[in-house]
Amino acid sequence: MADAIYRYASCIDRRDMAGLRRVLADDMWAQYGNSEPMTGGDVVAAWIDSATADAVWQHHLLNVYHIDLAGDRARALVYHTSYQGFRDDPEVARVLVARYHNELTRSASSGWQISRLVFEILWSERRTDPTGSLAAVGGRGPLVLPT
User: In 3D, which of 98, 111, 119 has the Cα closest to residue 25?
Assistant: First the structure.
């Protein structure tokens, strides 16, 4: 089940919306910060796609702190730190510190999927690189492995 949680984040980072959708239950319920709650895996995936459409890069770091398992259901507390760069201000990294309170369900056909998600936002900031450190260590890139 931890794989579903980690895959959620890595699919967002790679803009793999089909992969993201596979780890979201069809009847998922989610609330991100103080936004209105959403219902449905398609709705949540579309919302994430829209919210990150202008991201040039993203990097989510998750740590699953604990999982309480009860048969085909589980609850997980996941610590989250993410960094994003957006087209409108590419020299700024946006940082978010939060906790996910997840519930997951397992089925024979889909495996573990996130069925309930509360994203508790704890901190947000914007960072710049006034010293030129990014350029000094080789800048951004390459974005993908060469083929």
Answer: 111
Q: What is the pTM of this model?
A: 0.92
How many separate domains does the chain show?
1
Q: Where are the alpha helices (DSSP H) in 71-132?
A: none
Is there a contact between 143 and 132 (Cβ–Cβ < 8 Å)? Answer: no
144 assigned to some structural domain: no
Q: For 26-59, how does the pLDDT look when each residue is reduced to its tens digit (9 = 90+)?
A: 999 999 999 999 999 999 999 999 999 999 999 9
Q: Is residue 56 part of a domain?
A: yes
CA distance 98 to 70: 25
> Which residue has tokens 């990097």?
59
Please answer whether residues 38 and 29 qualify as being in contact, where contact means their C-beta atoms are separated by less than 8 angstroms.
yes
In one-letter notation, the amino acid at residue 15 is R
Tokens of 2: 């931890």
The answer for 132, left when phi > 0, alpha when psi is -120 to 50, beta otherwise, is left
